[in-house]
Structure prediction request, 119 residues.
Amino acid sequence: MSLEAKLEAVGKEFQTIQHNLSKTVEQRQKLESQLQENEMVQKEFKNLNDDANVYKLIGPVLVKQEPTEAKSNVNKRIEYISAEIKRVEGLIKDLSMKQEKKRKEVYELQMAFQENKEQ
Prediction:
C-alpha cells in the first residue's frame, strides 16, 4: 500500500470517528434536555397536594393517572436517562481518545508523505 493510499485511508477513518463523535455529543445533549424536563416535572410533583389530579398525555388524549404512579414513572425515567448519560459520556471519552490517536497518525503520515515528495 502506497503512502498516499494509506494517508487517504487513515484520513477517512479519522473523518468517520469525527462524525461518530459529533453524533454522540448530539445524543448527549438530547439526553440532558430530557433529564432537565423530567427533573422539572419531579419538582412540580413536590408542589402538588395529595388529592391533586394528574393527567398523562397519550397521543391526543389526556388520561387520569394516580399521582404515586406518575411520580414513580418520572423517577424511573430520571434513573434511566442518568444511566444513559453516563454510558454516552463513556462513548464520548472513548471516541475522543480514538480521534486523538488518528489525528496523530494522520499528522505522522502527512509528514512522511511530505518528506517523500521532497526527495
